[in-house]
Description:
Blueprint: H1 10-14, E1 20-22, E2 38-44, E3 60-67, E4 70-74, E5 77-81, E6 87-90, E7 97-100, E8 104-111
Antiparallel strand pairs: 1-2, 2-8, 3-6, 3-8, 4-5, 4-7
Amino acid sequence: MNDSVYVGNAGKDAALDRGWLLGHFKDPSDPRHSEDVEIKWGVHPPGDERRQWVKGEARTALLVLISGRFRVELPGRSVLLERQGDYVVWGRGVDHSWIAEEESVVLTVRWPSVSGYRIPDVDAGQSA
């Protein structure tokens, strides 16, 4: 086996790390470690929402709807993703939040990969 290759399943692997498949938070010896980009396979039950707005965003983000109905809240604008493949991109400095209006699967790509945005765990290890 080559240590620079990883083969997995997004659904299974995402469940192990709050949805995150790739980014700075993976062990440096893991081929999924990256300081350049973060990728998340987000599986959200209806009503799941980010408990706090991201403020002072230092990354650019792309969010693509795989299935469901997902709303992204941006300053002065609400974006509804409702058809497979609908997506939204926002740049550095754009605050945001989100809510799953239906059970939803979304793919998020953010760059660069930087720490400081995680909401502390609440209620038996749950976090947004």
